[in-house]
Amino acid sequence: MKPIKNKKRYLLLTIAIITIGWSTIMGSLTAKVMANPIGSKSVDKVADNYRVGKELYLENCSTCHIAIPPAVLPTETWKTILENPLNHYGTRLEGIIRFNQVLMWQYLSTYSRPISVNEREPKFIAQSRYFFALHPGVDLPSPVGHTSCVECHSRASEFDFRTLD
Ligand code: HEC
Ligand code: HEC
Questions:
Q1: Contact 161 CB / ligand 2 (< 6 Å)
Q2: pLDDT tens digits for 57-77?
Q3: Nearest alpha carbon to residue 73 among 150, 157, 146, 159
Q4: Contacts of 40 (CB under 8 A, 6+ apart)
Q5: Can you tell me which atom of ligand 2 is nearest the CA of 71?
Q6: What is the pLDDT of residues 81-99, one digit of tens each?
Q7: pLDDT at residue 26 greater than cutoff 80
Q8: Is 89 in the pocket of ligand 1 (CB under 6 A)?
Q9: Which of 27, 62, 108, 120 has a CA that sits 20 to 30 A from residue 8's CA?
Q10: CB atoms within 10 A of CB 28
Q11: Candidate from 161, 163, 164, 165 with most ligand 2 atoms within 8 A of CB, to mutate
Q12: Is the Cβ atom of 108 under 6 angstroms away from ligand 2?
């Protein structure tokens, strides 16, 4: 057999493996999206490109506390959180795979704003001016944190920050 032909065959095989691998991953992600109960109830619709990232976010980030809406923290804070899963507010986030991290990042960075130059990166919601900007004139508890959202957003655990009762 000529080496050139072999190379071609090898290339085709690689392409086939990549294609099958990719569709398996996307297929299982879609199945997860369908199975996620919070996601289907979520009121804020996102563009199709970010749907899987949002579902992965809800799946990975709502088990210990409510999933925090991206808009209340700057993009830089989300980046720090995603990049440091083993150093998460005194705890460790295990089992976040790189591929999911990237999809979550695409969702979180798209639905948050960057901080200004020289501005300090907030670590907590209570330090984020974007959180306060979303609450003009609202009499907020002090300190405010992820456990206080539900006092006014009764459906916070369903990732619904529109309903106010
Ligand atoms: C293993 C449990 C666990 C998981 C899973 C988890 N967190 Fe946390 N998270 C914590 C703890 C504990 C705190 C500190 C809570 C406190 O101070 O009351 C925290 C705090 C936070 C805060 C600050 C909240 C505030 O009130 O200011 C943010 C933001 C946050 N987590 C984001 C995330 C994101 C994003 C993910 C998914 C990548 C995630 N968390 C997954 C345990 C977890
Ligand atoms: C004291 C009541 C109160 C608490 C506590 C509170 N909120 Fe709110 N929130 C409101 C009100 C009222 C609005 C509507 C403000 C407006 O539009 O002027 C609002 C609006 C929002 C919005 C914008 C919703 C949209 O789609 O436009 C987000 C996001 C949000 N809150 C997140 C949070 C999070 C996260 C927490 C917890 C860290 C929290 N809120 C705690 C009362 C509260």
A1: yes
A2: 999 999 999 999 999 999 999
A3: 146
A4: none
A5: 29
A6: 999 999 999 999 998 999 9
A7: no
A8: yes
A9: 27
A10: 10
A11: 161
A12: no
Is the CB of residue 107 less than 8 Å from the CB of residue 54?
A: yes
DSSP label at residue 91? B
What's the 162 CA to ligand 1 centre distance in angstroms?
A: 22
CA of 115 to the centre of ligand 2 (A): 20
* Residue 150 CB–ligand 2 contact under 6 Å: no
Question: What pLDDT sits at residue 45?
Answer: 86
Is the Cβ–Cβ distance between 51 and 33 less than 8 Å?
yes
* Encoded tokens for 80: 């720090």
Tokens of 120: 């300090």
